[in-house]
Description:
Elements: H1 11-14, H2 18-28, H3 31-50, H4 59-91, H5 93-98, H6 109-118, H7 124-131, H8 138-154, H9 162-184, H10 191-218, H11 228-255
Protein name: Elongation of very long chain fatty acids protein
GO molecular function: fatty acid elongase activity
Enzyme class: transferase
Amino acid sequence: MKMNESLHAFDFERHFDDLxxxxxxxxxxxxxxxxxxxxxxxxxLGRVYMKDREKLDLRKPLVLWSLSLxxxxxMGAMRTxxxxxxxxxxxxxxxxxxxxxxxxxxxxxxxxFVFTLSKAPELGDTVFIVLRKQRLIFLHxxxxxxxxxxxxxxxxxxxxxxGWFMTMNYIVHAFMYSYYTAKAAGARVPRLCAMMVTLMQxxxxxxxxxxxxxxxxxxxxxxCFSTKSNIICASLMYLxxxxxxxxxxxxxxxRRSGEQKSVKRE
Length: 266
């Protein structure tokens, strides 16, 4: 499916070699397993190392880290959102869900690739939590690992629904990392902002499940390509996220309403 040709692509987007990117992931997606193993090891060893040491402040590095990811997410949200809005407006919901041109269209192909790659450096969020001796919850590291494995494995298959999944994540991350940047910089951010970010995350998971459901219904259509394994993995992933984020929201803002809690890093 072709993107609306009226959308303007920058030279670096237009000239990006998406076929080479696909080939790279076909050959290297297994590296995500290694990265996940190293990630777990770093968490364990880091917590052991910091056990009897004073927590590190790291305020300035954290501001730069969060600001970099916020800027990247805003740019990705604008470019992929532009593409998805154009498809949705001109061709309807079904085409937007079943679209696989997202991975090769001039405007979005570069951002699909860097989105997938970005799930590796995003693991660095946890390093700050460990070194600053903050509470590390199951949702945090489970989410990081499963997103990394899912995106790296499925990018090469270019299945339908990818445009929705990536664009939603870019949008949520744009707000989330902007919130983290403000907090790290010492700004007095209303607690309502943290609640709104978590609600956006929950909404993302609900919409993600809905998109997977539509893919299951329309998968018989030759123009709505996906695989059984991808639909199953995406269903389990989004369902687990929806439940975990909902529990986190309740425990953070209602069950312990008197405590100030920071929003979970996605």
